[in-house]
Amino acid sequence: MNKDQFPKRKENRLRCYDYTEDGVYFLTICTDHRRPILSHIVDRGTQMEDRVYEPIPEIVLSEVGSYAERLIQDIANRYEGIFTDAYVIMPNHIHMLLRIDRTGGRAMPVPTDRPSVSRIVQQFKGAVTKQAKTAVWQSHFYDHVVRTEADYLECIRYIEDNPKKWLLRQDEYNE
Fold first, then answer.
1. Cβ atoms within 10 Å of 91's Cβ, excluding its own
2. Are the beta carbons of 42 and 60 closer than 8 angstroms?
3. Are 54 and 48 in contact (CB under 8 A)?
4. Which of 6, 85, 92, 94 has an alpha carbon 20 to 30 Å from 140's alpha carbon atom?
5. Phi and psi at residue 76, in whole multiples of 5°?
6. Is 155 helix (H, G, I), strand (E, B) or coil?
7. Helix, strand, coil abundance in the chain, percent, nearest 5
8. Distance between CA atoms of 121 and 88, rounded to whole angstroms?
């Protein structure tokens, strides 16, 4: 099969957009073949008085998931002016809000190394893979440039609600 016979993959990066610029990025990083190796979600829900069941998810991280979480929490220490505003580590994927905000940072000598979102994700994935000593991730990741406050709040809500959706089998990554 030559390369023209393969299905065309939709580009997920905005053309002419500088992914090193200040902004907020909603990221989804999936495990290879969507294997559930990062965590499992336990239902700690209870029966309510009116007999309506309310699922209450608890995420239990695997060893690989725990290492991924330490790296996510360390992003602000590893990259100046780059922060993780929210994240969730699901069994087979991670959602993360990554914020680049260098306006309040200390003065840097020129030239300044300004890592792109792709480079940050690549280094994160590489570090987790090295620790796990096996392939962990799909080669690509999804990103969405957050452009408004309403969009930002919707991304936060999505991250917070994702474990509950998983339990209810309403998460698109839960096969």
1. 23
2. yes
3. yes
4. 85
5. -65, -30
6. helix
7. 30, 25, 40
8. 15
Strand ranges, E, within 90-153 = 93-100, 142-146
Task: Give me the amino acid identity at 84.
Answer: T
Query: Which residue type is seen at 142?
Result: Y
The pair of structure tokens assigned to 100 is: 């680049």
Q: Tokens 């003065």 label which residue?
A: 107
pLDDT, one tens digit per residue, over 105-156 is 554 444 456 789 999 999 999 999 999 999 999 999 999 999 999 999 999 9
Q: How far apart are CA 94 and CA 156, in angstroms?
A: 13
Give 155's strand partners: none
Q: Give the pLDDT confidence of 68-95 residue by residue, as tens digits.
A: 999 999 999 999 899 999 999 999 999 9
